[in-house]
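Record pair follows.
FIRST:
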Amino acid sequence: MHNLYEVVIEGPKVDILEKIKKARDKDEEVVKVAEEMKKVGINAVRGEEWQLEGDLVLKERKVYVLKNEKLRVEIIWLYYNIPMARYREKWKTTEFVTRNYWWLSVMKDVGKYVEECDMCQRMKNRTEMLVGKLKLSEILEKPWTHLIVDFITKLPVVVEKDVILVVCDKLSKMTYF
């Protein structure tokens, strides 16, 4: 049997454990399974995959976090905002979180948290070119001096033709087909 202190690191994460213990009572499925395990006197299910240690449920020696969104966000925040590794990418944060905690949608939740991080969105490297200054269009004086020409293609064949030439005057917006 593994000691709980091998599973969870010390520090502010100890407060999280207390919150997980309190939140466990609200997750009916987990409470039901945990009570059945206590009645029968079993501490592990499926070999060592699921274990019961005190008031905590462990999956593969990681603390199972219940269906409590605030609690999950708090855990992600703890690992995402580590001063030494502040604002890491999604995969590194997922790695840090899953060292000690587990829940079904951990990767999806971490990805969502990272994508919504205001500081990361501000500091993100932009790959597109800078747009530059806007230029005013020249003012046209005479109609039909500046034209726009386009083809409408992939039409059904009618009288051996399947294309329409469209000519448009920029000034008057008058169009010929």
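SECOND:
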Amino acid sequence: MKLGQIASIRLGYSFRSKLQPMNEGNFFVLSMKDLNHSGNFELSKLPRVYLKKINSENFLQQNDLLLKSRGRLYDAVLIEEKVEDVIISSPLLRITLKTTQVLPSYLVWYLNHMNTQKNLLRNIQGTSVQMVPKQALEELEVFFPSLEKQHSIAEIEKMAKRERFLLEQIQKKQNKLRECILFQLAQPDKYIRETVNDR
């Protein structure tokens, strides 16, 4: 089944001019640069803008998926928590499921899978600024098993992501400890004795 058949895909809000943040703005704006390497963002750090009128379909909702349509990686992000008064700016694409037969957590895994990413790469347009057109995403074939299997896949991916995060943290601490030890070894004996005595 094609993605366009099970989900609505909308391009983020297009501002006519350069974004002008306002402290008293009535809406938060989420752009590609606000997403960290894990695909998360901090609401308090998003710029505010004032808009008199905006269509309700531009608002970000819980269980929406965001996909980066420009760049070298076209990874998707799942909005797991409830958000209010947040609009996304182009070139982010907002994907909202229209069926209960597909779990959002499964779909985000599917879109980020290397085989899906390869399919998206075949449809990129542009030379200097490459992007995946909305139509190519709507025509993307999506295979989905039973809800039970979808849930299992999503849970395994969640645990794997947690494992990767912990391993990264361990690696950082090991690197820091190693550099500290090597720095101490590089110091003259007098410096080391003085350091120990100071403690």
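COMMENT: The helical segments are 3-6, 104-112, 114-121, 134-138, 147-186, 189-198.
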